[in-house]
Amino acid sequence: MATKQHHTIPPVAMQVGAQDGASESWLSRRTQKCKLILPGLVTSAVVGVSASFLSEHYGAPVMLMALLLGMALGFLSEEGRAVAGIRFTSSTILRIGVALLGMRITLEQIMSLGGTLLAVVIGGVLLTMTFGVVLARILGQSRDFGILSGGSVGICGASAALAISAVLPQDKNSERNIIFTVISVTALSTIAMIIYPPIAQWLGLDARQAGVFLGATIHDVAQVVGAGYSMSDETGDTATVVKLLRVAMLVPIVFSLSLLLRKRSDGPRAALPLPLFIIFFVVFVAINSSGIATPVIRDFAVSVSSWCLVTAIAALGMKTSLKSLLEVGWRPATLLVSETLFLATLILICVHWMG
């Protein structure tokens, strides 16, 4: 009688097979996710490219163009294949862009300003945010909107608004408030770029004083550069360094907000004391300060950061309807204009005091 032979699979072979299966499963999940987000990501990128084209050829602010074009395609975020990618772009790509902003800054640039000027710039950021929170409550707006608007005005415009929004609690009005803030600070920054240089000349500010005034008050980096170098090279250099110090304030501000929100919230947003994209921001500042990165690498990182932010803004625009923006009312606009005037007045007083 023939006996049956039982073949057993060696344990090692079983482990290898399990690992292969797990690897294939992980790869399959990654592939499926990429297919899911690709349509929305590509759509957002195309809108970003279109916005950049309009900005370069017609002089319009690229962030504003990306927002408006995105809003025109808002139907894509409601249903269809692009929904997941638009959501991914407005969150993950946004954080990548903010993290890479660190490649614009070095510790040497910050320390070159001197103690007094450092105190003035940092104090301007903190006082503007405090003013924003207080005035927001007076106008019947939420404290979080006061933080968002005050941070965008005090730090670096649209980029700061996006970074701060990433750690604020989300509610039904969050995206509307972000878009409204970005549109408002971009418009106000463009106006400031035009009228602040004549104001500096009218007040008799010298090149360094004018650079401090422009760098410490205009919201977006591009407008600071445009306004500063329209006056003189020295004014432009000073304005740019002062502005980069304000950009560097993203780290302590977002870190502090994260700690406060950790105490206020029991949700997953409070799990880490510091968002990962801010940790990478600090790492990139350290890399840029150490001189490890070549100018080519640094320029590439800054370019990628700009593209990420423009693409993310386009995606946020797609997620926001014009109708919801019109429902915001006059109070938020009053808040942002008042914060802008407060910061400009404060810095002019400090510049006059410093001589």
From TrEMBL:
Membrane spanning stretches: 36-54, 60-76, 88-107, 113-138, 145-166, 178-199, 244-262, 274-294, 300-318, 330-354
Subcellular localization: Cell membrane
Keyword tags: Cell membrane, Membrane, Transmembrane, Transmembrane helix
Query: Key word Aminoacyl-tRNA synthetase present in the record?
Result: no
Source organism, top-level taxon? Bacteria
Q: What GO cellular-component annotations does this UniProt entry give?
A: plasma membrane
Q: Which InterPro entries match?
A: UPF0324_pro
Membrane topology, as annotated: Multi-pass membrane protein
What protein family is recorded?
Belongs to the UPF0324 family.
The entry's protein name is Conserved hypothetical integral membrane protein
Q: What is the lineage of its organism?
A: Bacteria, Pseudomonadati, Pseudomonadota, Gammaproteobacteria, Pseudomonadales
